[in-house]
Amino acid sequence: MFFRKGGSLFVHGVKGFSSHAPKGVHSSWFKSQLDSVGLMQKISRNQLQKSLPSTKVYFNKNYLQDSRKVHDSLVKVPAINVSGDRDVVFQSGVPFTGKRDYFKQIPEGHPELLSPQERLNAGKKIVHSDSVVFARGGYPSNNPLRLYKKPFHARIFSLAGASFENDYLHSRLFMLDLYNPAIKQGTPFDSLFKGVPIDFSAAKKEIGNYDGTDDLSRIRLGFTLLARTGSGVYYPTFRKDSSVIFLTKPYFRHQLEDISMLLSATNESAHEAGKPALLKATAVGMGFFAKIDGAYDIQHLLFPYYLRAYKKLLEEHTYPWVAQIEFPVFNELQEMQFDGVFEDYKGPVKVYRTRRDVLEFTEQEIEEFTPCLVNPSDVFALTGNEWGYGSVEAMIGLNSSLRMDQVHHTNPRILEPENHVGVQIHPDYSAELVKSAELTSGSSLKV
Length: 447
Fold this sequence. Notes:
By secondary structure, this protein is of the alpha/beta class. The chain folds into two domains: 8-162 and 251-446, no CATH class; 170-250, no CATH class. Helix content is 28%, strand content 22%. The chain is built from 14 helices and 20 strands. A ten-stranded mixed β-sheet has the order 16-15-12-17-5-4-1-18-19-20. It has a three-stranded antiparallel β-sheet with strand order 6-11-7. A three-stranded antiparallel β-sheet has the order 8-9-10, with no helix packed on it. It comes from Legionella waltersii.
C-alpha cells in the first residue's frame, strides 16, 4: 500500500495553502473513501510520482483574477454534490441536512463555501492532470467494468458545464422569464450579453411570435413551451407571451470561451508530451445539469451550441498539436445533431463521433497519440464527486488516479500559484496562456 496515515507521499516537498483551508474541513474522510473503494491498491507509487506533479489549473482571467481566487474555487466546495444541491456531503463527511435554499444564500467571501456568483466564476477554469487509467466502464447494465492489462497515462481536463438544476446559477444567467425578468449586470459575464436584450420585456419584443432568432430561443417541450410563474414555478404552456426565453447567443459565447481554453490547454499539453493529441470531447453540461429544475431536459437545445463552438474554433484558429477529436455520442438525436453541425466542416483537425467509452483507447492510439479526455465535472464538489458509478465524472474518478491528482487533500500542488495558468480570451476567441499567475502578458504563449 502506497498511502500511509497523514498522506506523506502526497505532501512531501509541497508548499500548499493548508493553513487557509476552510475551518472544519479535514482530509481524513476523503482518504478513507479512497481506501474503501480500493483506489489505493490499484495505483502504484511510481505511477503517482508521475501523475501528481503534472497538475495544472487553467483559468480564465476575466473571471478568476489571480491564484487566490483559483485556490478558493478548489477548496471552498463540498466533497459531494448531486441533484442540484439537493444531496450534498461536506468535506468532513457530514451530509447536509438543511433547507434547499441554503446554498443560494451563501454570501460572497464566505470562509468555507462559494457564493452562487463565485460558483459561476469558478466554472471558468479547467483542472488538468496526466493521470493513470487502469479501467473503463462500470455501468453494469450497458457498459461493464473492464480492466486494462497495461494501465496508461491520459491527460484529463476537468471542465464544469453550465448547470440549470436550480434557479440561482446558469438559469439566472441565460434565461429570462417572469421570475427572472432581467439579467444582473456588473459581473464578469457582462461581455457575453453585448447586443442582446437582457430584460424579459425587450426579449419578448425582439423574438415576437417566433420560437427563435439568432440571439434568443423559446424552450420547446414537444408540442408545448416551457413557462415560469412569477413565484418561480415551471410549467408547460401553449402561450408564448409567458414562455421562458433562453439567451442562445450569450450561451454560445460562454461555450466559445470554455472550448477555446480547452483546445489551447490540450494543444499545450500534447506539445509537452511530444505527441499530437487524440481528445475525447465528452459532452459537458448535457446530462443532469441540462435538466431545468431537475425536471425539464434542454439537452436538445444546448448540445448543438457545444458542437458549434468546436467547429468555429477549429475552422478559425490553429491547434497544431491536436490531431483528432472524438465525440462520444450515445443517442440518436445527438448523432443527428452532430452530423448536421459538422456536415460542412473544413478544419484541419479530424473530427468524428463514436459510441466508445470516454476512457477507451486502443494500444495503437496510445502509442501514436497523447490520450486526452474531457471530464465533465461539477464546480461545487471535489473532482470525482460521488463514489459510485452514477455519472461520467464518478466513473472516470473510480477508473483512474483522477481523485488523487486533482484534489487538494491528496495533491496540494494543485493550490500552488506556479501550477496555475492564466488564460486571456481575445475578442476573436483565440486564447493567450500565461505560464504563471504572476507573469506579465509579455511572457505568454499565444495559441
